[in-house]
Amino acid sequence: MVKDNKVLGKNTEIPNSPIGFKFDLIKNRNRKFIFNVRLTITEFTSICPVTTQPDFGILFIDYVPKSSLVESKSLKTYIHSYRNYGIFHEDVVIKIGTDIFNSIRPIWFRIAGYFAPRGGIPIDVFWQSGKKPINVVIPELSNFDRKIFNRKII
Questions:
Q1: Catalytic annotation on 55?
Q2: 91 catalytic residue (yes or no)
Q3: Predicted confidence (pLDDT) per residue in 18-77, tens digit
Q4: Given 4, 24, 55, 145, which residue is catalytic?
Q5: pLDDT score at 43
Q6: Could you tell me the CA-to-CA distances from 88 to 47, 82, 92 in Å, in that order?
Q7: Among the options 4, 24, 48, 145, which is catalytic?
């Protein structure tokens, strides 16, 4: 169970900003194993700090945990706090990555942000904490299909 949780099992309002957010953490009960956790955020939104237009992206987060895992409802609350927050693509990927990394202190961490094109230019941003560990399955990111941004919504 999550100790001193602030989000899990509670009615939670979405913050207006990610600044100062504290993640609920879960104890890694499988420390004797080396494994990868992949979190996929398919509907990330934030606001361009210059034009105030919405930006849309997909985030992939991979990490090999040590003692803690990020609790998914607190991650969802944190991610939604960007919905009306002005920040550039490059900054948001690094901020999300370092906020999660500094909270859980994993063995290894990677985040990839694929953003819908603006002016015909897609922006993809990647950050990782170091060299990939060996003896653990970590899916490649090369299979991402940009056509997802062109899907028709009926």
A1: yes
A2: no
A3: 999 999 999 999 999 999 999 999 999 999 999 999 999 999 999 999 999 999 999 999
A4: 55
A5: 94
A6: 8, 11, 6
A7: 48
